[in-house]
Amino acid sequence: METILGVKGTDFVILASDTMMSKSGMWLDDEVERTNRISGCCMMSTAGDGGDCLQFSDFIQRNMDLYKVTNGYDLTVRGAVHFIRSQLTAYRKSNCNFKVALLVGGYDLSSGPELHYMDYFGNSVPVRYGGHGIGINFCTPIIEEFYKPDMDTQAAYDVIKKCVIELYKRFVINLRNFDLFLINKEGITKMNRINLESFRGDFLAGPKRRI
Q1: What 8-state DSSP symbol labels residue 198?
Q2: Where are the transmembrane segments (predicted)?
Q3: What is the rounded CA–CA span in Å between residue 63 and residue 80?
Q4: Distance in angstroms (rounded) separating the CA atoms of residues 195 and 168
Q5: Contact indicator for 139, 167 with CB cutoff of 8 Å
Q6: pTM above the 0.85 mark?
C-alpha cells in the first residue's frame, strides 16, 4: 500500500513518496525511504514488493557509485534509465524476478529536467508527470487538471499537496507522511514533508460558519 508521484517543470523535477509500510490492514513502519539518490542530480522512487524494492534500490545505487568511481563521472539520466530497465528485463528471465515499478527523475545540463515512468517489465517512457501505487487512480485526475508545463516549484508542490489531501480523504489507513525531493541544476534538495500536521486545517476545518 504505497504511492509515488513525480512532476516535471521547466527546470526541475519533484519526486514524492509516502513513507508507510503496512500489511493486511496493519501499520508496520512509518519511516520507509522509497526515493533514493543514484547520482548527484538523479533519483529514483520505487513501488512494489517491500523486499524487492529494498534489494533492487540498493543494487542500483551500488552500481551507480561503482560507475562513478571507475569513470570519474556520473551516468546521465537516460543512461541510468537504460541501465535500470536492462537489469529489470534481465532479472525477469531468471529465477530472481524483482516486482518493482519506478519513477526516475533527474537533471542533465544538456537536456534539462527528465522524468521517466518505468513498469515491472522494464518498459520505460519519458513523461511530464506520473506515478505508481494504490493512490495513483485518485492523483492522476488532480494532476491533469492543475498541471502546467511552465509551473514553478511552489505550484508543483501545491499540486502534490492536493493529491495527498485527497488520499487522506479516501483511504481508511492514511499514508501518514510524504517525502518530497527537488532535483534541478543545483542538485538534490529535500523539501518540506507533507503530513497531517502540515495541512490539517486545509481539509478538516471546512468552510467557516456564518454567525
Answers
A1: G
A2: none
A3: 10
A4: 10
A5: yes
A6: yes
Question: 165: alpha, beta or left, given left = phi > 0 and alpha = psi -120 to 50?
Answer: alpha
Please tell me the predicted confidence (pLDDT) of residue 211.
Answer: 37
Catalogue all structural domains in the chain, each as residue range(s) with its CATH number: 3-199 (3.60.20.10)
Closest-CA residue to 193 (of 204, 183, 178): 178
| Main-chain phi, psi angles of 118, to 5 degrees | -135, 135
For residue 208, the model assigns a pLDDT of: 45
* Spatial distance between the Cα atoms of 2 and 50, rounded to a whole number of angstroms: 10
Q: Which of 11, 40, 15 is nearest to 111 (CA)?
A: 11
Question: Which pLDDT belongs to residue 21?
Answer: 74
In this prediction, residue 29 carries a pLDDT of 67
d(CA 211, CA 43): 51
9 close to 177: Cβ distance less than 8 angstroms: no
Alpha-helical regions (H) of the chain = 50-71, 77-92, 136-146, 153-170, 200-204
Average pLDDT of each block of 10 consecutive residues along the chain (211 residues)?
Answer: 91 92 68 89 90 90 94 92 92 82 93 94 93 91 93 94 88 80 94 78 49 37
